[in-house]
Structures are given as C-alpha cells and as structure tokens.
Amino acid sequence: MIVYNLSCEAGHKFEGWFQRADDYARQKAEGSLSCPVCGSSRVEKRPTASHINTRSSLSDRQSAMAATPPKAAAAAIQKLYRYIDQHYTDVGAAFPEEARKMHYRECEEHNIRGTATPDEVGALYEEGIEVFSLPPKPVDKEKLN
Ligand SMILES: [Zn+2]
Description:
By secondary structure, the protein is of the alpha+beta class. The chain folds into two domains: about 1-70, no CATH class; about 75-130, no CATH class. Helix content is about 40%, strand content about 20%. It has helices spanning about 20-30, 60-65, 70-85, 95-105, 120-125, 140-145; strands at about 1-10, 15-20, 45-50, 90, 110-115. The strands form two sheets. Strands 2-1-3 form a three-stranded antiparallel sheet. The protein is elongated, with a radius of gyration of 20 Å. The model is unreliable at about 50-65 (pLDDT under 50). The structure holds zinc ion. Zinc ion binds next to loops.
C-alpha cells in the first residue's frame, strides 16, 4: 500500500491509497480519482509520499485513523453499520450498563449497540467485558444531496 498526499483544484487536502505506485497515474488518467470533499476529479499529488508502516507508532496510527478512508473501505464500513443497525438493539448511553448486565448474567445475552465514553470503555475492559469500537461512520454523499 502506498499513500499519496493529494489535493484538488479547490485546495482540499486528502490522502489517496494505492496498491502500487502506478495506480495513481492510471486512476488519474481514467478520471476515477476524485476529491472526497467536493468530488472534483482535478486532483494533484502533493510532494510528500509515504508508505504505510504496519508497525507504526501510536501517533502514526492516530493520523491514519483521521485520514479519509479509501472508497472500498468506506463502503465496507457503511455495510457494517447497516448490519449493526439491523441486528443490534440500540441502547444508547445505557450501553455500559447493559453490557455489564449481560456479562454478569443479569439478563439474556443479546446484541446491543450504543455509546460509551473512553472511561466507560476502559472500565468495561478492566472487568473483562469485550466491546468493539466502530470506525467513524463515513459521510454518506447520497444522503447529503
Ligand atoms: Zn475538493
């Protein structure tokens, strides 16, 4: 995987993820490269290029998480959210409490989703309760329009 820092004609800066170095040139020629902010296909490579280091430090990982996910990943995340919407009961902010109830067998095990603060998540882990944090939901362009 290769990451290029790209920017569009309007000056939006984003990252493009490519399997190989020549994928950038090919996708640009096809016009399939576009700015995730404004959709412009007039995209240029900014001078710095970096390779993804799988053993990156925490700060590298944090910046990777803030980056715009590639299209395929965004689609996969959308799918994940759709699945969770359909199969998991939304308990909202009661999530830590509900997760704890199931862990201590105070209620039937069932799929739940909800929100928790980092402190609450930390406390759950300490009690041996595994929770899964979802990746940030990608912006749904169709809904915006
Ligand atoms: Zn743009």
